[in-house]
Design goal:
By secondary structure, the protein is of the alpha/beta class. The chain has one domain: Rossmann fold (3-Layer(aba) Sandwich). The protein has 8 helices and 5 strands; from the N terminus they run βαβααβααβααβα. Strands 2-3-1-4-5 form a 5-stranded parallel sheet, with helices on both faces. Helix 1 packs across helix 8, helix 2 runs antiparallel to helix 3 and helix 3 runs antiparallel to helix 4. 38% of the residues are buried. The protein binds adenosine-5'-diphosphate and magnesium ion. Magnesium ion binds next to helix 1.
């Protein structure tokens, strides 16, 4: 089973990815978890460039994310799925479609096409978008924002709207959840949604 989490920074992706990992492991399943960009040696170097480096053009940004993703899928995700492990990713290609395609204005279809080429067409079984008001996102992140987090408020508003649009385009794969719900409530909803994909019903 291949599951991805999406949403603005501070929406609770890492929190839910870890809670889901714990649930799956408690069920005796092997779980591979990774964050994007990153999860490989090259990917972590690209992460540093794209999140903590200098300014770059939107297409350079999109291509760096796609490069990190290509490496992660080939080195980590595909081998794990091939041995029937579960894979949980904290962001995947929907992030690029929304941040670079819609947020930066490169085009939803163009960025999706680039990324599908990069990952050999591999799509998740289920994608959870944790929907959060951009104003709350800023408050939850606090501290030291990275290069993407520092972008204008209008950029983050486009990103938030972009996730809603993507979910409407792919209702069979993408589910939008209210990120202000309690952590445990979200975990239960996510677990229930995965039952058709082979997760055991709660005892
Ligand atoms: N459902 C929730 N309700 C309230 N706060 C939450 C919830 N989920 C996560 N948080 C808190 O919000 C902050 C960001 O969560 P995190 O999982 O790191 O988000 P992300 O990975 O999407 O950036 C953390 O301080 C976390 O403890
Ligand atoms: Mg996170």
């Amino acid at each position: 089973m291949f599951v991805t989490f999406e949403g603005l920074d501070g929406s609770g992706k890492t929190t839910q990815a870890e809670l889901l990992r714990a649930r799956l492991e408690a069920d005796g399943r092997e779980v591979v978890i990774a964050r994007e960009p990153g999860g490989t040696e090259l990917g972590e170097e690209l992460r540093r460039l794209v999140l903590h480096g200098g300014e770059m053009t939107p297409w350079a940004e999109a291509l760096l994310y796609a490069a990190a993703r290509a490496e992660l899928v080939a080195e980590v995700v595909a081998p794990a799925l091939a041995r029937s492990a579960d894979v949980i990713l904290d962001r995947y290609l929907d992030s690029s479609v929304v941040y670079q395609g819609i947020g930066r204005g490169l085009g939803l279809d163009e960025v999706l096409e680039l990324n599908l080429l990069a990952v050999g067409g591999l799509l998740p079984d289920r994608t959870f978008v944790l929907a959060l008001d951009p104003a709350l996102s800023g408050a939850r992140v606090g501290g030291r924002p990275d290069r993407i987090e520092r972008a204008a408020e209008s950029f983050h508003a486009r990103v938030a709207a972009g996730y809603e649009r993507l979910a409407e385009l792919h209702p069979e794969r993408i589910l939008v959840l209210d990120a202000t719900l309690a952590r445990e409530v979200l975990t239960e909803r996510i677990h229930d949604e995965l039952i058709p994909h082979g997760l055991r019903r709660p005892r």
